[in-house]
Predict the 3D structure of the following.
Amino acid sequence: MTSTAPLIEARGLTKRYGGFTAVDGIDLTIGEGEVFGFLGPNGSGKSTSILMMLGLTEPTDGTVRVCGHDPSRNPLAVKRQVGYLPESVGFYGDMTGAQNLRFTAELNGIPRSEADARIAELLDMVELEDATNQPVAQYSRGMRQRLGLADVLLKQPRLVILDDPTLGLDPAGIVWLLGIIEELSARQGIAVFLSSHQLQEVQRVCHRVGIMSHGRIVLEGTVAALTAQTDAGGFRITLKVEGANDALDASLASLPSVRETSRSGIDVVIESDEDVRASAAAAVHGHGARLLEMRANDRTLEDIYLRYFQEALQ
Amino acid sequence: MSALFWKELADHFGRRRFTLLLGLVALGLVWGAFVDLGQLASSGRRFFFLDVFTTTAGVPISLLSFLSFFGPVIGIALGFDAINGERTQGTLARLLAQPLHRDSVYNAKFFAALLTLALVVASMMIVVIGLTMFRMGIAPTGEEVLRLTGLGLVSVAYLAFWLALAITASVLFRNTVTSALASIGMWFALGFLITLLGGVLADRIVPDIETPDDAVRHVTIESWANRVSPAGLYSEATSILLDPIGGRALNLFTIEPGRLEGLLSTPVSAGQSLQLVWPHIVVLVAMVAVLLALSYIRFMREEIRA
């Protein structure tokens, strides 16, 4: 990451529809080459924030600058450098995949000869080389999504904004997409702004995440920092134990600083104030059971997310 | 803008709806071939190439009436899904994420459709005129050419009105079916209802026609009501253009072509007729401009949600 001006800089960005506040004064900074996960449940204001970043709707209040420009005042400067994959991307069904991309290239003023080479390369990258000359009407949802990704990259953007790109993809498709995102950021230095309501995927590829709830960013930072921040200040140790029994449970529960233990099948969970891994392992040994696996503080982003949203809902 | 303009134009000429446009040109072919030229010639009228458009000899209705009735359908067909069609398809957000201004999307759509309409009207007229030349072995006079050019202009302006109406509907309504129905509803309202209401209004204001003054007032009220409607403007303008002798009476007396010939036997010049229809063209263009401005303002400020 370089120390140049941020690609996205939002200050107090707000959007109201009548009495309803969809986005409530969010602050955001996204740097060059960064992968930012914009998380939150449906209806939390993610898409509306994105629309404001692209000048597709005007902010009620606050400012946003994308690549140094105001998207409402100077939308073209923004759109030349930013690729946007809308939530439900559409193509002209009667045109082939390649024709659709060629049209986008024309709109971006890319010369024909250059465009054709780039289109072939991109279609290859999104694994649509066999469907190049097939009308998009015959594409599956996943194929459209991949074509959408090629479409977004055609203009060689500095920043890519993907609005819920995994929606409707199968698990293999999601893994593939995340691989592409990682590669874009690592190899080509393209910043990725990834909105999603699915978390597992996001924490894997994102440098930083922001969690939206009711129009506000309620948490922001790296996954590790967020985990620390939301951790209740204790340890959660998970073990896989073969041959566990009630006696083992009792001795684990009686270890110093342990608050709670639970077991289902071979999975044992210990909540404690201190790290009791060593003594827990000794206890397992002592009862003649076999320890297969042990992990500490294995809080996923999902735990945070769920915890946060349970709080937010109350 | 130009990339989108050419794509739109290609769409109009490539898609199924172009069959409709082609149908119109084919219709010109049929009319040109079946109009009873012998009957026209024996009536001793002087403006052959104009009469071909207004005569009912040998054909069910005159070509002009046909254009006046069904032209709106073509204008509407080219515009009713201009904006909301892109929205439904999910391409509007993607389109507007490219470096082009919103107004160029709008303009490209309007001008591509307008050019299509102009090409269709011109082809149809050329087909009719060409066939008539072929069958009669005479060429139109300069007078006639001028008047026919005027007819082409007025026709394109008339169709442009319905196009603008349909594009406005496509901005205002999210659903393409709704915008098509709304446009057709407006076609009925502006095309037929106003004319009927004009008659009713005139009857209410001038119930008994006793003096010539009453008659003039009655007709004046009717024709002003008519001028609110683009169809009324169009029929008035075309009757001035295509009937150099009776047309200048400007609906003052409802006349069939040729009935006043004994009375007013000198035709007005094409220049004079064009001068007479100039306001009609201006009003039609102004109506188009108002509609476009309305939808333009709406579209420019609108939120483009995928």
Notes: The interface with chain B takes residues 47, 51, 54, 56-58, 75-76, 79-80, 82-84, 86-94, 103-104, 106-109, 148, 151, 155, 163 of chain A (CB under 8 Å).
